[in-house]
Amino acid sequence: MTDLSPDGQPQLSKHRIEALVDGIFAVAMTLLVIELRLPEHAHLATEAALREALVELLPKLISWLVSFFVLAIFWIANHRLYSYVRHADPRLLWLTILSLSGASLLPFASAVNGQFVSTTGQMVYSGVMIWLSVSTLLMARHIHRHPALCAHPMGLGAYRATMVRSCGVMSIAALALLAGYVAPGKANVMFVLMFALRPLGARVERRHAQAAALSRA
What sections of the protein cross the membrane (predicted)? Predict the structure, then answer.
């Protein structure tokens, strides 16, 4: 029998949700590499032909590299959010499923973006990035606003750090889309900026903690 919270909402096991998250992210990260294959009917008898085939794979390789680490970053974000959670309610469950739907779609978006060097391909890719960011932000807001779900409440500093990271990814995705109009095929380089979001979020959280400490002094 499912336990109920004081407001009558069912308390769902976070461990089964985390197992689903881990499985879908693992499958999505594995599927990314399927697009990295040499032409089946190409004649690769010489070193020059092999090098030419590998050069032709370069856009797909870049798309795979970016997508793999993007999925890793969002998996870490999900892991960080669920570290606060003791049990889930139906709304958090569905917000998590919304995030997983974006993760499962990323291999398709990566394939489109790698195969078709175009503004439309970049639009599909950036759209999935925004989808993942919005769903992560909604999860963080729900966890922050419902401390009864948490083993330890998500503080305002941690919530604001998540906002900075999520909004940062959305901004980078929009920037990549704009760059796609100028230099199609090279816009994915913009997503390297995502690696600056973690220290930026940590700085926001640290400054909030310092301000809170000063206000209590």
Answer: 20-38, 58-77, 92-112, 124-143, 163-183
Q: Where are the alpha helices (DSSP H) in the chain?
A: 14-31, 47-56, 58-82, 90-115, 119-145, 156-182, 197-216
Quote the crossing angle between the two packed helices 58-82 and 156-182, to the nearest 10°. Answer: 170
Give the confidence band of 39 by pLDDT, cuts at 50, 70, 90: low
In the chain, where the domains are located: 12-216
| Confidence (pTM) | 0.84
**Residue 88 three-state SS:** strand
pLDDT in tens, 174-186: 998 888 888 766 7
Q: What is the DSSP letter of 85?
A: B
- For residues 40 and 75, the answer to whether their CB atoms sit within 8 Å is no
Task: Tell me if residue 13 falls in helix, strand or coil.
Answer: strand
